[in-house]
Amino acid sequence: MITVNIYKKITDIFVKIVSAVLMLLVAGIVGIMLYELCLRNFLNKSFRASTEACGFLFMWMAFLGIIVLYDKDRLITLDMLYVRAPRNVQNIFWFINKIFSLGLGLVMIVA
Fold first, then answer.
1. pLDDT tens by residue, the chain, 111 residues
2. Distance between CA 111 and CA 83 in Å, rounded?
């Protein structure tokens, strides 16, 4: 049971870091969009790089958002099986869930 608590603390820290990165991504998208709007409306110029950067930031925002939703059990899960299982089997399901969550995060960061 101690290992479950340690793993939960580690995943909670990871999710907090991902949440902070998500806030930075949203701020980056808003900043780039405002910059592009000002350039387009006041200087009559437009840069394709800003559109590409917004698309890139939005893609990462979506990927990292899945990690937070997955960790907080806000995605569709197999709760009907989980609730009916014995306590020790629920712990095994919990570990499997968190391992997949961590793997999903690592794949998104590496890819």
1. 567 788 788 888 988 998 999 999 999 999 999 999 898 889 888 888 888 999 889 988 888 888 787 777 666 666 666 777 888 888 888 788 778 777 877 776 776
2. 34
Separation of alpha carbons 60 and 50, rounded Å: 15
Q: Which residues of 61-95 are buried (b: 16+ CB within 10 A; e: fewer)?
A: bebbebbbebbeeeeeeeeeeeeeeeeeeeeeeee
Estimate to the nearest angstrom the gap between the alpha carbon of 14 and the chain centroid: 10
The token pair at 66 is: 């899945």
For residue 57, give Cα distances in angstroms to 10, 27, 30, 90.
26, 10, 10, 36
Confidence (pTM): 0.63
